[in-house]
Amino acid sequence: MLGIRAVRSLRSALPKAKKAIVIPQATRTIASSSRICSEQPPILLGPGAKPGEVPTDFQQATGLERLQLLGNMEGIDVFNTGPLYMSKMGTLKEPVMVPSYSEERIVGCSGWPVESHDMIWITTNNHKEHHRCPECGNVFKMNFLGDPHAHHH
């Protein structure tokens, strides 16, 4: 456990360390589902650290984690993790539409009106037309936006 002296010295060293860490700017704009800005995909392999240095998260990140970090640098929510806004309760005739680029998406229902029950997680997919919350009866329907002929693992 760190002592008070160690915490204070760490806090005083942080501003200096932040100045010393140079994060290279992305060489191109991220292509997201809402906009495509380049024909080349982003580089998903980090540069790594120099010998004898401890790498930062940005330097050692690869794959989807790096894609998310590059998106965050440009202010893009790559995985669309924001809340699903509901202006009304979903019914069988007018369900709450859940956009997805994947074959399934997990939705958290906190009830109607909002937060009327504990969070219940519902997996939506294209195999069933409607998915109903067992607590409040809210109905969700997945709106698949991806390529239906794409190869999935």
Automatic annotation (TrEMBL):
Q: Where is Zn(2+) bound in this sequence?
A: C109, H117, C133, C136
Q: Which GO terms describe its molecular function?
A: metal ion binding
Which membrane topology term applies here? Peripheral membrane protein
Q: Which InterPro entries match?
A: Cyt_c_oxidase_su5b, Cyt_c_oxidase_su5b_sf, Znf_C2H2_type
Instruction: Locate the transmembrane regions by residue number.
Output: none
Q: Which GO terms describe its cellular component?
A: mitochondrial inner membrane; respiratory chain complex IV
Identify the Pfam families for this entry: COX5B
Would you say which domain of life the source belongs to?
Eukaryota
Residues of the C2H2-type domain? 133-153
Q: State the family it belongs to.
A: Belongs to the cytochrome c oxidase subunit 5B family.
Name listed for the protein in its UniProt record: Cytochrome c oxidase subunit 4, mitochondrial
Q: Which organism is it from?
A: Serendipita vermifera MAFF 305830
